[in-house]
Protein: Ribulose-phosphate 3-epimerase
Organism: Liquorilactobacillus cacaonum DSM 21116
Amino acid sequence: MKIAPSILSADFANLRKDIEMSEKAGAEYLHIDIMDGHFVPNLSFGEPILKAVRPYSNQIFDCHLMVENPEDYIVPMAEAGADIIGVHYESTPHIYRVLQKIKEVGCKAEVVLNPGTPIEVLTDILAFVDAVLVMTVNPGFGGQKFLPNMIGKIQRLSQVKTEQKLDFEIEVDGGINEQTIQECQKAGATVAVAGSYIFNDSNPMNKIKVLHKVTGD
Ligand code: DX5
Ligand code: ZN
């Protein structure tokens, strides 16, 4: 499984060090949580941080937008070095337009679902997206407990993917540790975000390796 360390739980005073560590540990993605204090009740950081760290990593930059008016952030994110841009289905009345815009700027288009949003809302856009991110906690904060009800949702999404012979990634985000990652993988997830599990440990590099190991990589 691909691992996406979330820098939300990294040491902001030593961001470059943590990012270089995560690449060295073999993490394929770097997950960057952009929060505006409106769509979610928390603030994080914006594209200047992305731009600042881009020269120090060859990882795939996976930008998770938790903002209102996501269409305003697509071009700045792409210019700052995003590879994948994830937009919440719930954050715009024009999800298709925003996903089109992401592709137009040369990035991979990812749609994100809150825990309360069923996968059925994606029926008519699944063939268009590069990835679906299933939130396994309520968005806004690191360190929350994995919601076990989300396993059935991942299974249903994976079933649709197989039936329709589609090839989007299924990413999971929130409460991922060495147990929950295996449950998500069994259900069909292909990418896992992990923040506090990795960065709250005294040996974060080892934690990334453990996540790869328990998922067979
Ligand atoms: C939460 C963010 C997550 C967060 C995950 O809204 O989307 O990416 O950093 O943190 P953990 O892995 O600690 O649940
Ligand atoms: Zn996230």
Notes: The chain has one domain: 2-214. The first strand starts at residue 2 and ends at 5. Helices lie at 15-24, 47-53, 74-80, 95-104, 150-163, 180-187, 196-199, 204-214.
